[in-house]
Specification:
single chain; alpha+beta
């Protein structure tokens, strides 16, 4: 009486296939990037509401993909590129690329974001060699993305320099 392994082998292959498919399928319970940031001691509203996807490696390096580049108004106007990268550690984001802040008429790269440990009411942004301390409350809620830098200094100057549209007949004042 010979033992037939074919049915058992087919069942084993089917079982392994089912397990591998369920392991590959992403979990619906995966946290959002807005939930990940507070786990690292950072406010969830550092990124705009248009995050399409993100990845976080075990060494803390991350990539955030937005639907499109956009602007958010905090105390300063902030520009987010479509792709943002950096290194996430507890209380800080270093090696940051893809976020700029407007100061006067110029745009500056934000290199690092950090908070006090233990937490305080402040958050610090490093732009070049300058550290700027801001109130953390403005970053606790997720802000909507804008397509344009409306309301910025650039737009204000455009409106000042633009001549008004003529309205009806304009009487000429002739002087001698």
């Amino acid at each position: 009486m010979a033992f037939n392994l074919k049915p058992h082998l087919c069942l084993l292959v089917f079982y392994l296939y089912t397990i591998s498919i369920s392991a590959i399928k992403p979990s619906d319970d995966a946290p959002t990037v807005y939930e990940i940031l507070p786990k690292f001691g950072l406010p969830g509203g550092l990124l705009p509401d248009s995050v399409k996807s993100y990845s976080l490696a075990s060494d803390g390096s991350f990539v955030v993909e937005l639907e499109k580049p956009c602007y958010v108004q905090f105390d300063y106007l902030v520009y987010y590129e479509k792709r943002i990268t950096g290194t996430l550690k507890y209380g800080s984001i270093t090696n940051l690329e893809g976020i700029q802040v407007q100061r006067f008429f110029l745009w500056f790269d934000v290199d690092e974001i950090r908070v006090d440990l233990p937490p305080s009411d402040s958050i610090y942004f490093r732009v070049g060699f300058i550290n700027k301390k801001l109130d953390v409350d403005q970053f606790k809620t997720v802000h909507s993305c804008r397509d344009e830098a409306s309301g910025s200094c650039t737009q204000s100057w455009k409106s000042v320099l633009q001549l008004p549209e003529p309205v009806g007949d304009i009487q000429m004042l002739i002087t001698e």
